[in-house]
Write a structure and sequence with these properties.
Residues 39-52 have a biased composition (Acidic residues). The chain has 612 residues and is an alpha+beta fold. The chain folds into 3 domains: 9-17 and 193-340, Pleckstrin-homology domain (PH domain)/Phosphotyrosine-binding domain (PTB) (PH-domain like), CATH 2.30.29; 28-164, no CATH class; 344-611, Endonuclease/exonuclease/phosphatase (Deoxyribonuclease I, Chain A, 4-Layer Sandwich), CATH 3.60.10. It contains 10 helices and 33 strands. The longest helix has 21 residues, at 29-49.
Length: 612
């Protein structure tokens, strides 16, 4: 958990949920219960072998797996007989101690009314009776249908005493069950979060404006995010709602790169983005965390919800009331999120380039599908030496929109003057370089992408005219953020006429130094978690391929890597990559070329580990 809980609100919610979960599941007692099960397995087996109706006794264990003793230090035993095994009522045997009478069962004897209304009576550490809240104990245990032992570990698959698989499922808040996919499902009520429940209907004081309109005034507003109704509500400072936007239409929550108070929301069916200014950085962070849960099937890193051998758990929160500083208000509906054991997710990223050689896009058909199969999450395709007739972006947009189909979004086309999904109008940098980058994402990835930017570069002194059909030095850079991970991609084309390796290094360094995406005050070499360089770098035209020697000598692209599988082929087009060592991990899966396309090309496939 963060050291400042008021800064990371969703972490506070997760922390509170974990406490509620541990209270329901017996805290860290999962391992202890397994030990108890192992300890009682032999005794349970002996009890099962006894004659029908003959009572046997098994030593009892508490929820932490420790043997139980009475006040005089005698072991506590639980009676098991053949009648119980047949599903009949278990009689209390002589010499055995009744656990429920001691307060170790679901509720103490004679306390049924208290259990039904407010809580149960259990024994505290001093052995004295104490009342506990209904929410914590309502389903904090389950009773085995064979031996009637009350199990404290609520998501245990088998009884801790007789090892019989659990057959009955309870349906109350705090209960954990397993679905067909092997995920555990934890059910909670909003009142179990106590004062932290207010973030499930979070209210944020903001200044709302339209950054794209010079006539738009700034207005004080109260913005509410309803976790249960899945709505964003724009209200006056007095709480009167002016409009509501459905979370299903949200496709971007974008933090400003350099201003820590600004944030942008983009919705489908909304005429323009919604720009908000928050009073503090902490408020903006709270908003981002809660808003991220409005995505479809949101996943958060919460390993305490995932029991042993379970990678993900579904957490369902039923709304009943919200606590706002001692005042409660009703809440209706049910919200859910997925708790993951892993702090990252793995995305398959395809990165490649095709040199069109100033010809149009061919009718590639199945050939292009073999080069660019529809099995990855993110595609970054660089087009080099694009003919002047295609530099307005329309043909490229239509071609790749039709090629990828309805399961993908064409997020960015740097040759276009309008990129709606990227939230970019116009073009940046030098005009009309003979290169373009197309970024395509799978539909379920769109809402995870933000801070998309690009920058076009010609060699200083080059005109960049649309009708110019020569291959000079040029580059196109693209930057984006996927959840908490930043990615930069440089498409570079260096003139093949350079025969001096130092001159070629200088041209590449010139392109790197001109990149103005994201925060330009941070050096480009450490500005992103992942950095890819692809294109015709031209080192193959030298007497020997000097690229690796220059990289290893830290003369250019320091610490970049290239998969060795094609390193000795002296190809004109290359793909190199770099990633931040401590916070990012890249696993290259493929590096190949497709001669059947009839144009210079190369592709690489990576598994990128993206922080949640």
């Amino acid at each position: 958990m963060a050291s400042d809980p008021e800064t990371y609100t969703w972490e506070m919610i997760i922390y509170t949920l974990r406490e509620a979960y541990n209270a329901a599941a017996g805290g860290e007692g999962g391992e202890g219960a397994e030990a108890a099960a192992e300890g009682g397995e032999e005794a349970a087996a002996e009890a099962a072998e006894g004659a029908e109706g003959e009572q046997q006794y098994v030593q009892a264990y508490d929820e932490e797996g420790n043997p139980m003793y009475d006040e005089e230090g005698n072991p506590v035993y639980y009676a098991v007989d053949g009648a119980a095994a047949d599903g009949e009522e278990q009689p209390e045997g002589e010499g055995g101690l009744d656990l429920e009478a001691q307060g170790y069962g679901e509720y103490a004897e004679g306390d049924e009314e208290a259990y039904a209304e407010e809580g149960v009576t259990e024994l505290n550490e001093d052995g004295e009776a104490q009342d506990t809240e209904q929410a914590a104990v309502d389903t904090a245990s389950w009773t085995c249908t064979k031996c009637t032992f009350v199990n404290k570990v609520i998501d245990a698959a088998v009884c801790a005493v007789c090892r019989v698989p659990r057959t009955c499922e309870q349906e109350g808040p705090g209960h954990v069950e397993r679905n067909a996919e092997g995920r555990t499902e934890l059910k909670l009520r909003s009142d179990m979060l106590k004062e932290k429940s207010k973030y499930l209907k979070g209210q944020f004081k903001v200044v709302k404006y339209n950054a794209d309109s010079i006539l738009s005034g700034k207005k004080d507003r109260l913005f509410e995010i309803d976790f249960f109704k899945r709505e964003f509500r724009n209200c006056s400072t007095g709480g009167t709602q002016s409009f509501a936007l459905q979370s299903a239409n949200l496709y971007r929550v974008e933090r400003h790169i350099s201003n820590p108070l600004n944030l942008k929301l983009l919705f489908f069916k909304s005429p323009h983005p919604i720009d908000l200014i928050f009073p503090t950085c902490a408020d903006r962070q709270r908003f981002v965390e809660v808003a991220a849960l409005q995505r479809k099937n949101p996943v958060v890193w919460a390993p305490n919800f995932c029991r042993e051998n379970v990678k993900e758990s579904i957490v369902k929160i039923e709304g009943n009331k919200i606590d706002r500083g001692g005042k409660s208000e009703p809440a209706e509906g049910t919200g859910m999120f997925i708790a993951s054991r892993m702090p990252y997710e793995v995305l398959s990223v395809w990165a490649g380039t095709i040199n069109l050689q100033f010809r149009g896009l061919p009718n590639m058909g199945e050939k292009l599908e073999e080069f660019c199969p529809m099995e990855h999450d993110v595609y970054v395709l660089g087009l080099q030496d694009v003919p002047s007739s295609m530099r307005d972006g329309k043909q490229i947009q239509e071609f790749f929109t039709a090629f990828f189909g309805q399961n993908f979004y064409l997020l960015l086309n740097t040759s276009s003057d309008s990129n709606v999904f990227a939230g970019i109008e116009g073009r940046k940098g030098d005009k009309n370089p003979p290169g373009a980058v197309v970024v395509v994402v799978r539909r379920n990835v769109l809402a995870k992408v933000a801070n998309i930017d690009f920058f076009e570069m010609n060699e200083p002194g080059q005109s960049g005219k649309k009708n110019k059909e020569t291959s000079d030095v040029y580059g196109v850079f693209v930057a984006l953020r996927i959840q908490e991970t930043t990615i930069g991609v440089l498409l570079a084309n260096l003139t093949p006429n350079l025969t001096d390796v130092n001159a070629r290094n200088g041209k590449l360094q010139m392109l790197m130094s001109r990149i103005k995406c994201h925060d330009p005050l941070i050096d480009i070499s450490v500005r992103f978690d992942y950095f890819f360089v692809l294109g015709s770098l031209g080192y193959h035209t030298l007497p020997t391929d000097e690229l690796h020697a220059q990289v290893q000598g830290q003369l250019v692209l320091t610490d970049f890597k290239e998969w060795d599988i094609l390193a000795d082929m002296c190809l004109p087009d290359r793909v190199l990559y770099w990633h931040r060592a401590r916070s990012a991990k890249a696993s290259q899966q493929q590096y190949s070329t497709a001669p059947h396309l009839g144009m210079p090309n190369i592709l690489a496939v990576f598994d990128l580990y993206v922080l949640r």
